[in-house]
Every structure is written in C-alpha cells, then in structure tokens.
Write a structure and sequence with these properties.
single chain, mainly alpha, Tetracycline Repressor, domain 2
Length: 172
C-alpha cells in the first residue's frame, strides 16, 4: 500500500510542479517518506514519473466511469462531462501524460506509459460507445478537449459532446 501512496503523492507533485522543476529531494519531501524508502520503490526520477503516470491512469479511468449510465450515447456524453470536471480539478494546464511526453520525448519508458494510457482511453471510448468504428474519432475528440481546455474551457467539452452525438447518430 505504501508504494501506491507514494505514487499518488508523486502524481500530485508532477501535476503541480511539472517534470523539470521538482528535484528528487523535493519529491521525497512531498511524498512524505524517507529518501531510502522512495528509492526502494522508485530507484530513479524516471521510475517516479512512470509510477505517477500509471497511478494517474488508473485514477482517471475510474473517474471517467464514476456513475456512468449504460453504454451508448448517454455514456459518451457522461464521459465528456467527467472530462470537464477532471480538467477543472486535476489538469487545468492540460494532460499530464502529454506534458510528460513533451518533457521526455526520447524516454522509452515514459513513452510506453503514455502510449498505454492513450490506447486504453481509446478502447474505453470504443467500448462505452458500443461502436468500435468510432474509437479513433471519439479519441481525437477526447484529446482535443484535453489540449484545447486551457484556451476554450467549457466550450471544448460542449463542442466535443455535440460532435460525438452527431457521429453516433450517423452510425446508428
């Protein structure tokens, strides 16, 4: 359990301070454990970043599906509403995964963690929409909201919801 608690603290730290600014000493302080304990579970800053991304992924998927209606159009509208709340509460500066990839474009472990997260979000949208053929376009709408949020705010979500409904009605 301690390993997960540390990963959660690391997620908050990277979300709040970015990836370049916090030193390992600051991450240790923010995680509330000794440096020895931090390194026991996460032996490098890279491992800490990957752990934070993986922790955030699990939390994000659960957040999107919280109180979700049955699969279909209503569920997709719900997911985009939840995305709005996520952006407001946890990601006002955009997607942490994309920020990590931008900070470490050549890091294979970070890239792999981001790729896994994005693929699973894409599959979630396909499953919840009941329309596998819309997986890519729903994913692009999702990513568009995440990217446009700092500039467009609510308007990005409303546009994505309207577009998703139009696409799903056209495929019915």
């Amino acid at each position: 359990m301690l390993k997960q608690e540390i990963a959660g603290a690391l997620e908050v730290a990277f979300s709040q301070y970015g990836f370049a600014e916090p030193s390992v000493a600051k991450l240790q302080k923010l995680s509330g454990v000794s440096l020895r304990t931090l390194y026991k579970y996460y032996p490098s800053k890279q491992a800490m970043i990957v752990a934070a991304l993986e922790y955030r992924h699990q939390r994000y998927i659960a957040f999107l599906l919280e109180n979700a209606p049955a699969k279909g159009a209503d569920c997709i509208v719900h997911i985009f509403s939840r995305l709005k709340h996520w952006m407001e509460q946890f990601a006002p500066n955009g997607c942490l995964s994309i920020n990590a990839l931008s900070a470490f474009p050549d890091d294979l472990e970070v890239s792999s963690a981001v790729q896994k997260h994005k693929n699973e979000v894409r599959q979630l949208l396909a499953q919840q929409s009941l329309q596998q053929s819309l997986a890519d376009v729903l994913f692009l709408l999702h990513e568009g909201v995440s990217s446009a949020w700092p500039v467009m705010g609510d308007d990005a979500v409303i546009s994505a919801q309207q577009s998703a409904l139009l696409l799903m009605k056209g495929k019915s």
